[in-house]
């Protein structure tokens, strides 16, 4: 079965590859230090106000293998989701998961590790890719593919294995587990995005289907234009009972 690549998945592949080549060439051969400008570095983001790093860090990668693995996963699952959702929703989901992963990374470095962690850069599209994996596991959970190119496995089971691996890595790998914590943050962000979107759609559907409550219609017929004052005697009031207003509900 041929692999299809949708429009914005193709753009993301090109953008990530071009950014990787430019960054690696500049930093390794020309001393450009682009990593300090565009990678997500806690001290630069918080104290030097380089807020764009929360968006740009996902276009940089540490090495060729890091780039290839992320782009391969993007090719395998991204196009199906873009075709299903459309480009605007796909891109919003992609960068939402990436931004949430970056925010959790900043929190862990600033609040928990501090000191040297403030200068440790974060790069890679893994947060966004792991968010896409969660969406794929929920929507196409029954699809079977080859895990490690050998073992047939349903997509939803593959996602659960990834969650377990990243969770254990976060717990037992010390500082190295921060990357896994960011991956988990991307997955959690993807799940919450889908859950809130689903609940909102259900709310709108229920609101649209709710019965319209008709207000009561009251018709008043007054035959006596010259109403008697209320201080008249009760006997006189009794005579005028037929002239009282009449209502229909």
Give your account of this protein's structure.
A hairpin with a 3-residue loop joins β1 and β2. The protein has helices spanning 7-29, 34-38, 42-47, 53-56, 64-85, 87-113, 126-139, 155-172, 178-209, 234-239, and strands at residues 144-147, 151-154. The chain has a two-stranded antiparallel sheet with strand order 1-2. The chain is mainly alpha-helical. The N and C termini lie far apart (67 Å). Helices cover 63% and strands 3% of the residues. The chain has ten helices and two strands; from the N terminus they run αααααααββααα. The longest helix has 32 residues, at 178-209. It has one domain (7-209): Rhomboid-like fold, CATH 1.20.1540.10. α8 (155-172) crosses α9.
Unreliably modeled segments: 225-249
What is the CATH topology descriptor?
A: Rhomboid-like fold
Helix content: 55-70%
Mean pLDDT: 82
> H/E order of the elements?
HHHHHHHEEHHH
CATH class, anyone?
Mainly Alpha
The rounded Rg comes to: 31 Å
Outline the biggest β-sheet: 2 strands, antiparallel
| Secondary-structure class | mainly alpha
Q: Write out the CATH superfamily name.
A: Rhomboid-like
- Work out the strand percent: under 5%
**Distance between the amino and carboxyl termini:** 67 Å
- Largest sheet, spatial ordering of strands: 1-2
Number of strands: 2
- The CATH architecture: Up-down Bundle
Number of separate helices: 10
């Amino acid at each position: 079965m041929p692999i299809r690549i949708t429009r914005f998945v193709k753009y993301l592949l090109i953008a990530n590859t071009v950014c990787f080549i430019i960054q690696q060439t500049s930093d390794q051969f020309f001393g450009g230090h682009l990593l300090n400008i565009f990678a997500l570095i806690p001290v630069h983001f918080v104290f030097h106000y380089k807020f764009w790093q929360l968006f740009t860090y996902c276009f940089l990668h540490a090495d060729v293998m890091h780039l290839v693995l992320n782009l391969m996963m993007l090719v395998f699952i991204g196009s199906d989701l873009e075709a299903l959702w459309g480009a605007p929703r796909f891109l919003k989901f992609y960068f939402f998961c990436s931004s949430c992963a970056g925010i959790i990374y900043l929190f862990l470095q600033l609040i928990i590790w501090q000191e040297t962690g403030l200068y440790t850069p974060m790069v890679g599209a893994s947060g966004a890719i792991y968010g896409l994996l969660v969406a794929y596991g929920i929507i196409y959970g029954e699809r079977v593919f080859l895990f490690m190119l050998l073992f047939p496995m349903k997509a939803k089971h593959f996602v659960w294995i990834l969650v377990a691996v990243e969770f254990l890595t976060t717990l037992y790998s010390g500082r190295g587990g921060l990357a896994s914590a960011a991956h988990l943050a991307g997955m959690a962000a993807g799940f919450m995005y889908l859950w809130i979107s689903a609940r909102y759609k259900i709310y709108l559907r229920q609101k649209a289907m709710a019965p319209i409550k008709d207000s009561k219609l009251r018709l008043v017929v007054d035959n006596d234009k010259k109403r008697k004052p209320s201080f008249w005697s009760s006997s006189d009031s009794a005579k005028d009972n037929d002239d009282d207003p009449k209502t229909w509900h």
